[in-house]
Design a protein that fits this description.
With 378 residues, the chain is of the alpha+beta class. The chain has helices spanning 9-22, 59-80, 96-109, 142-145, 158-168, 187-194, 198-210, 226-236, 254-262, 272-278, 325-330, 343-350, 357-374, and strands spanning 26-29, 38-42, 45-53, 84-91, 115-119, 124-127, 243-248, 269-271, 290-293, 307-309, 317-321, 333-335, 338-340. The protein has a six-stranded mixed sheet. It has a five-stranded mixed sheet with strand order 8-9-11-7-10. The radius of gyration is 22 Å and the shape is globular. It starts with 8 loop residues before the first helix and ends with a helix.
């Protein structure tokens, strides 16, 4: 623990390291002046962590430090090559008002950068792939409860898109979406099934209710006004993704080589038209396959053997950095050991592709999305 008298850089780093160790992460502390403050890893995820500490949990003190940590973490992740950036700020007290300011800042300026706020009082607030399990919130004092008002939440953040898929999964045909397929009567049941924090689930469901997307007459959690929900979801998912055209050094069938390379990987999956084909929803041919990864490798791609970047020749496939990694990889469908984006993700992603993407999206909408609208009362 740290206090106002002892809070310093080393105390903050030790505190964050212990938070991760308590949740089963492997933690490596960097040597003085070399690399990020910490490197944490669990399963397929590895983060370069930059830690800042401050006694006062005021937004005007915390957000500048968070900004600095974001820039340093991004630089550290580039130097490591195979790690995602993670910026963390330690404070003595982290009020809900501070977290709202942090969320607003991140949504506006650093939506794709994992961040964390931790406090001595017990608050743990993380955003990023595989980090939600670390979250912990303290209840607000009862005297403030009557005066609290709903706070606006980005309904289509990365984690919220995953939770939307969980709510829709029961109505999606088997094999088109990997997610729990249950009936949920409480937010706690839903949070447990979706493997998200109770706080994240509660805020997500409150926002759905606030915007009129939940059936208030049902004893279950049921999405309504789905056509409008899908329209807004598609608009929110329109985002340019970093891409890297790739070629194999060995001349062999491209799809076969992709499948061999991706077999068993949990942090890479087929996307767009190739995923549509894998799900038997293909409608457009002739487009190079897309493969999603959490982060593009360095330009020399030395950690990707048998591959070379292809800037001037027709690529064998295109490596794309996922804008919404949690929603993309959590819901991905296993096809004989190779992951493919789920049908909803494919529909979102192909819509604005110049190679007949709108045509492919319309085909998926008729096959998958339209039936979800028809079954919204079920």
């Amino acid at each position: 623990m740290f206090s106002s008298r002892s809070i310093n850089r080393q105390a903050g780093e030790d505190f964050v390291a212990q938070v991760f160790r308590d949740h089963g992460w492997a933690v490596t502390a960097a040597q003085e002046g070399q690399g990020p403050d910490l490197i944490v890893a669990q399963g397929a995820f590895r983060f370069a962590v930059e830690v800042k500490t401050v006694s006062e949990g005021r937004p005007d003190r915390v957000i500048p430090l968070l900004s600095q940590a974001i820039l340093e973490a991004q630089a550290a992740s580039v130097s490591l090559g195979d790690a995602l950036p993670l910026a963390v700020v330690c404070v003595e007290q982290a009020a809900s008002s501070l977290l709202r300011h942090v969320e607003s800042f991140v949504e506006r300026y650093a939506i794709q950068v994992p961040i964390g706020i931790v406090s001595e009082s017990g608050v743990r607030f993380f955003r990023g792939p595989a980090l939600e399990a670390l979250n912990q919130m303290l209840p607000e004092p009862a005297r403030y409860a009557a005066h609290s008002t709903p706070q606006s939440v980005n309904l289509f953040s990365d984690l919220n898109q995953w939770m939307l898929k969980v709510l829709l999964a029961r109505d999606v045909p088997d094999g088109l979406l990997q997610a729990p397929r249950q009936i949920y009567r409480t937010g706690a049941e839903f949070a447990q099934a979706a493997q998200v924090s109770a706080m994240s689930a509660s805020r997500f469901l409150s926002q759905l209710r606030h915007e009129g997307f939940l059936d208030e007459s049902s004893s279950q959690i049921v999405l309504v006004r789905r056509e409008e929900l899908f329209r807004r979801w598609r608009a929110a998912a329109m985002r340019t993704c970093p891409e890297l055209p790739m070629r194999f050094l060995i001349k062999a069938p491209v799809l076969s080589q992709i499948q061999t390379h991706l077999n068993g990987k949990v942090d890479a999956c087929l996307g767009l038209f190739a995923a549509a084909d894998a799900l038997s929803l293909g409608h457009v041919s002739g487009v190079p396959p897309y493969v999603y990864v959490p982060k593009l490798p360095r330009p020399d791609i030395s950690e990707w053997p048998a591959l070379v970047a292809s800037a001037h020749e027709r690529p064998d496939f295109i490596l794309r950095q996922a804008s919404f990694p949690q929603s993309t990889f959590r819901a991905a469908v296993d096809r004989n050991g190779v992951l493919a984006c789920d049908a909803i993700q494919v529909w979102l992603d192909v819509a604005n592709h110049p190679s007949r993407g709108a045509e492919q999206a319309d085909f998926i909408y008729k096959k998958v999305m339209s039936p979800l609208v028809e079954r919204q009362a079920g």
